[in-house]
Amino acid sequence: MNPLELAGARPGPAFTVTFDGRPVEALPGQTVAAVLWAAGVTSWRSTREGRPRGVFCGIGVCFDCLVTVNGRPNQRACLVPVRPGDVIGTQDGTGHGETGTQDGTGHEEARHAD
């Protein structure tokens, strides 16, 4: 059975957000983490060492689920509710460019060798 049916939930019509440049369906009231999980995405941040991370604690304590939302790094995916049109991006490290510069959507800009 569908979890929405089990809970008797009627969340309202779905809308679209963007994750790393691709459209993803979301429902009102879902967090970024819930939307990404439902889309089959389990990792959306990498540590400074390049290790993948996603939801760990699910209650906003551990900071493993950090994403960039609408150009703002360090947003906890397990706490941030999605809104129609949100632009969500994978975050590298602390989101402040130590593993590469970001273009504001969580994507790393191309680096050019001199």
Report the β-strand fraction as a percent range.
Answer: 15-25%
Profile the largest sheet: 5 strands, mixed
Low-confidence regions: 98-114
Based on Cα principal axes, name the global outline: globular
Rg calculated over all Cα atoms: 15 Å
Helix content: 10-25%
The computed structural class is alpha/beta
- N-to-C SSE series? HEEHEEEEEE
**Beginning-to-end CA distance, first to last residue:** 57 Å
Number of helices: 2
Q: Roughly what is the average pLDDT, rounded to an integer?
A: 82
How many individual β-strands? 8
Strand order of the largest sheet: 2-1-7-5-6
Task: Explain what this protein looks like in three dimensions.
- The protein is α/β, with parallel strands linked by helices and 114 residues long.
- The chain has helices at 3-7, 32-38, and strands at residues 15-19, 22-26, 45-46, 52-53, 66-69, 72-76, 87-89, 91-92.
- The protein is 11% helix and 25% strand.
- The strands form two sheets. It has a five-stranded mixed sheet, with helices on one face. A three-stranded mixed sheet has the order 4-3-8, with no helix packed on it.
- Mean pLDDT is 82; it is low at 98-114.
In short:
The protein is an alpha/beta fold and 114 residues long. The longest helix has 7 residues.
